[in-house]
Write a structure and sequence with these properties.
The protein has 556 residues and is an alpha/beta fold. It has a domain of 115 residues: GMP Synthetase, Chain A, domain 3 (2-Layer Sandwich), CATH 3.30.300.30. It has a 9-stranded mixed β-sheet. A 5-stranded parallel β-sheet has the order 4-3-5-8-9, with helices on both faces. Strand 25 and strand 26 form a beta hairpin. 46% of the residues are buried.
Length: 556
């Protein structure tokens, strides 16, 4: 078993096995079963690339063999940072096929985050594109190899830099099918072992590593796929990063593969491109977020295309307002499906046949009957249905601990194994209604921004005496980040200067503050704690005042 992980106590593991929740399958076993059942079914579409399940079997076998030849072994961690291209799918499947553990970074992550992921995971290899949107990942990888001697391999999809391996060369190495089969036959992968490391939302600091096992992640994909109505006829469109738990397995790519559906990778977030692809590929399900849905509803582009195949539009990351769910159903003739959960485990989904009260207003219910949920007050006492409190959960696909994070585990998990979601909810029976959160983070269209992380970086600015980061309301993303700063005496700071400084720290662009408020002091509690709620109210009122002034100006 991978050191640094804490798994389910045996009494719970036995219960989950006996109840059939854990099928004893690895992620590749799951995939191989579909390959055997539907070898000639189209599994993956990306532009002109069309690959069947048989193709994915062949490609990932060759790639898995090449990775073994490069010294990658079961339980080795490999940082995977690719955009939504076929090679993401190939590397992910090849790594789990040989029992290596993909650590899933997002395309937007930069030096600060990548450095943390490599250090925290002990990664021995790093898979990257060459450049995306003018950012050169190869140069960043060179810096990482200089800092981390154990990072033995950098593999580049595209043109490599000196000392880096080209993906094309790996795939071109001469190997017969028989040699590849013999090579892979010697690899033993256990369903109980870690399969994937996802990233936490980084609510109090940089992201923690979430170790998901093969058997629990197969269950995650299976149950979410069932709740979404997936079957062989399902055509799932992935627009958001495949490295997110939402698009990977909730139900996402792996949910589609479990049931033998087709995964279509969207080339961009452009509305016209998305709906042209819906028409061409007869897409049945799209996984979306609030900003995308709001854009579609306010655009005439979809009307140029036939979207009659579309049955379900899912929303995750941040709650979709009931009004938008209703508009989505009216405009596209599809079912709006709310998905609320966490990469640590618990997934709640509204059911496709739910009555309107639940479909339009709730955040769903657990996908598994064995998901234990309770809502508790600040003292940890369970509250009555309909009352608000923090959501706690444990179950057959919710982790029992972060990877190598004893201090964080003491905060995030109860002594009896419940995970503290950090979200304020109310429930009626098993139906969940989200109300807010306890954790200090900003939810920018589903991307979580750790206030503490960004505050620490701003503190390093020579003109900053004190800073606090708060969420400001935004009609498109739900929330954006606003930095309240007290400057040092005789120092000044402007927004452009602050952003330029932070960009030099190489953080992901979505974490950058989108407004700066320079103040003389912060509102404080009697014990000296910054009253962030008051600051959120201040910026919300200021935004509303500015909006009103604009409307008056244009009404003249």
């Amino acid at each position: 078993m991978l050191e640094g992980c804490k798994f389910w106590p045996e009494e719970y593991a036995r219960r989950y096995r006996e109840a059939g929740y854990w099928e004893g399958l690895t992620l590749w076993d799951m995939m191989a079963r579909t390959v055997a059942r539907l070898p000639d079914k189209t599994a993956l579409v990306a532009g002109e690339v069309r690959q069947t399940y048989r193709d994915l079997d062949r490609i990932t076998a060759r790639l898995a063999s090449a990775l073994l030849d490069r010294g990658i072994r079961p339980l080795d961690r490999v940082l995977l940072q690719l955009p939504n291209i076929p090679e993401f799918v190939h590397y992910y499947l090849a790594l789990v096929r040989i029992g290596a553990v993909p650590v899933l970074a997002l395309r937007a992550h930069r030096h600060t985050e990548v450095r943390h992921f490599i250090r925290a995971s002990g990664a021995v290899a790093y898979v990257i594109p060459d450049t995306v949107n003018k950012f050169d990942y190869r140069a960043m990888a060179v810096e990482m190899q200089q800092e981390f001697p154990d990072l033995r391999s950098v593999i580049v999809v595209g043109e490599p830099a000196a000392g880096q391996a080209a993906h094309a060369d790996l795939m071109a190495e001469p190997r017969s099918d028989g040699e590849i089969a013999r090579r892979l036959s010697g690899v033993v992968v256990e369903a109980e072992e870690v399969a994937t490391m996802l990233l936490s939302g980084g609510t109090t600091s940089l992201s923690k590593l979430i170790p998901r096992t093969h058997q629990d992640y197969v269950l995650n994909a299976r149950l979410c796929g069932a709740a979404a109505g997936f079957d062989e006829a399902s055509v799932f469109m992935a627009i958001l990063p495949l490295g997110h738990n939402y698009n990977l397995a909730s139900p996402g790519m792996l949910g589609a593969f479990y049931y033998g559906g087709t995964v279509v990778l969207a080339p961009s977030t452009d509305t016209a491109e998305i709906f042209a692809l819906v028409e061409k590929e007869k897409v049945t399900v799209i996984a979306a977020v609030v900003p995308l849905i709001a854009t579609w509803l306010n655009s005439t582009d979809p009307d140029r295309y036939d979207f009659s195949s579309l049955k379900v539009v899912q929303n995750g990351g941040a709650r979709l307002a009931p009004e938008l769910r209703q508009r989505l159903r009216d405009r596209f003739g599809c079912i709006p499906q709310e998905i609320y959960g966490t990469a640590e485990g618990l997934i709640n989904m509204t059911r496709l046949d739910a009555p309107d009260d639940l479909l339009l207003h709730s955040s769903g219910r657990p996908v598994c009957d064995a998901d234990e949920i309770k809502v508790v007050d600040d003292l940890g006492k369970e509250v009555a249905d309909g009352e608000t409190g923090e959501l706690l959960t444990r179950g057959p696909y919710t982790i029992r601990a972060y990877y190598n994070a004893a201090e964080k585990n003491a905060e995030a998990f109860t002594e009896d194994g419940f995970y503290r979601m950090g979200d304020i909810v109310r429930k009626t029976g098993r139906d969940i209604y989200t109300e807010g959160r306890r954790k200090d983070l900003i939810n920018r269209g589903g991307e979580k921004i750790s206030c503490e992380e960004v505050e620490n970086l701003i503190f390093a600015h020579p003109a900053v005496k004190a800073v606090t980061l708060v969420a400001m309301p935004d009609p498109l993303f739900g929330e954006r980040a606003c930095a309240f700063v007290i400057p040092k005496e005789n120092q000044s700071l402007d927004f452009e200067g602050l952003v330029a400084f932070l960009k030099q720290q190489h953080i992901a662009s979505f974490k950058l503050p989108e407004r700066l408020e320079v103040v003389a002091e912060f509102p404080l509690s009697p014990v000296g704690k910054i009253l962030k709620r008051q600051l959120r109210d201040v910026i919300a009122a200021k935004l509303e005042q500015e909006r009103t002034q604009r409307e008056r100006f244009w009404d003249r």
